[in-house]
Amino acid sequence: MCGIFGYVGKDNNVGNLILEGLKTLEYRGYDSWGIAVKNGKTIEIEKKVGKIGDPKLRFPKSSIGIGHTRWATHGGVTVENAHPHLDCSRKIAVLHNGIIENFEELKKELLEQGHKFVSETDTEVMPHLIEEGLKKEGFASSVRDAFNRLKGLNAIVALNADSSEIIAAKTGSPLVIGVSDDGYYISSDSLGLVPHTRNLLFLEDNEMVILGKTLKLISLPRGEEKTPDIQTVDWKFEKVDKGKYKHFLLKEINEQPQVVENIALNYETEVKNLADLIDEAFGTFLLGCGTASYSGLAGTYLFSKIAKKHVNFSIGSEFNYLEDYLTPKSLVIPISQSGETIDVVEPVARAKQKGSRIAAITNVLGSTLYRQSDFKILLGAGPEKAVVGTKSFTAMVAVLLFTAYTLAKRQAEGKKMLSLAAENVSEILKNHVGENIQKLAATLKNREHIYVIGRGISYATALEATLKIKETACLHAEGFAGGELKHGVIALIEKGTPCIVIAPNDETYDDIISNAQEVKARGGIIIGIGPRPNKVFDHFLQTADVAEATIIPQVVVAQLLAYYLALARGIEDPDKPRNLAKSVTVK
Ligand code: G6P
Description:
This protein is an alpha/beta fold. Helix content is 35%, strand content 22%.
C-alpha cells in the first residue's frame, strides 16, 4: 500500500536518494509513483504510472525532496492521481497515506474559494488547504491547521518551495523518521532508513514533525512542543533477493521448513509466556486479516482440542463491533505479518483504551503492532516479499500450536510435532509431490471455480487454500465447512467441478470423505490432500500424519498448487497479484 519517503539535509542528490528509498517500499504494493524536489523557489515533479523500474530522472541538484508509491483508493491509476499533489501556486507538494473521509466537503469549500483541482484524489485538498493557511500564517501552522481539519486515519508529508523544511503529521498509517549526521529521512517503514541511520523516531498518532536544520516534534491538535524519543536500533535487516528461485513466492514457500523448525527449537520461553497470559486472562481474542485471520481461526480449534481452552477469534475489521465485551481482564492477540494492517491496529488501539492486555504475534520488528503491544512474539520468518503470505502463515500456526501444547503442559509433544511437520514440508518440496502438483495445475488451469472443503481445523485450511488460489492464480475458489455442503453449495457442483478435500487423519476423516462422496456423486473431481489415500480421490497429494500439525504440510501443498496454477494461467508476476497490497494501511 502507499509508501512515503522523504529527505532534508546535506546530500544534494535527493532525486536518486528518494528513488532508492521508494524501491525499498515497493514490496508494499503500488500502481503509480512520484517524486517532488525543491529547486530554488520552485518544485519539480516527476510522476509515473506502473512500476519504478530504472527511470532516467532529470532532477536538479537539491537536498530536499519527497516521494511516494501509490496504491489507488480515490480515483483511478493515472499520472494525475499519482502523488505528490500540488496547490494552485505549485509551491506546496503533499504526499498522503490514508483516506480523508471528509474530502468532498473540504473540496467543495476550496472550489468555492476558487481553487483548481486536477486529480480525483482525496489527497489534493491538503495542498490547497495549506495554500489557504499560508495567506494568514506560517508553513508549520498551516500544515497543522489543515491536518486538524481532516477526518479519518491519515499520514501526510508536505514540502514548501518557500521553506527549507519538510513537515509530516499522522493520525494513522506508519511514519518513521531517520536521524543522521547528514540530515533527516522520513519513511513509511524502517527498512529503507536503516541503510542511512539507526537512530529512529517512530511518529505516534496525533504528532507532527518539522524537519529542517533541526527536528521539532509537536503534538496535535494544539501544537505543544514535545521531546522526541529517538531510539537507536541494532536490528539486522537482511537484504533479500530471489536467489536461485524465479519468484519470491516460490523462495518463501521453500523457506518454510527452517521457519517452522526455528519455532520448534527456539520458542519455548515465548510460548510459555503467552500460554501464561492466556491462562490468566478472562477471555482471549485472536484477531487477524486475510491469511493471518485463517491462522487465528485454526488457533481456536488448536486451543480447544489440545488445551481444552475456549479462545475467541474475529477478523480484524469486525472486531470493532465486538469490542463491547472487552474488559481489563481480556487478552487480545493480534496476528499480523506486517504489524501494520489498519484493520488490526485500530481495534487493538481501542482494546488498549479499555485496559485489555495486548500480546501481538507479528513478523516485523518495530512495526506499529509490535510497539503497541504489552507482550510480543516475533515470527522470525525473515522478510516476506511476495504479497501473498506463505511462510508467515505457517509460522503463525506453529506459534499458536506450540502455545496450545504448552498450555496443555505437553510442550515436548508440540515441539516434536512441529519438527516432524518441518521435515515433511522439506520432503514435499524436494520430492515428486511438486511434480504432481504441476501436472494437476495444468489440468485445472481453465476451470472457473474450485471448491475446497474441510472440517474442524481443516475448515481453516480450506479457507487459506482458497485465499491462496484466489490471490495468486486469480481464479475463483470457495472454501467451506464440509458439513455446509448440503446446505447450499452443492447446488453449484456439476460434472467436472474440482473439489479439494482437506482430509487429515483425525476425527473429521470419515465425515469429510462422505462429503467428498456427495460431490463425486454429482460429477465433481475430487482432489484429496492428507496422509490417507481413499478411493474417492481422483487425485491425491500426500502429506505425513503429524497430528494437529498436519495443517502445516497441507497448507504448503495448497500454496504450491496456487503458485503452479498462477504460472499455468500465465500470471506474469505471482509475487505481485493485481490490486493487492502487502501492507494494508487503509480501512
Ligand atoms: C493483505 C495481503 C494478504 C494478507 C493481509 C494481512 O490483504 O494481501 O495477503 O494476509 O493483508 O496482512 P498482515 O500483514 O496483517 O498479516
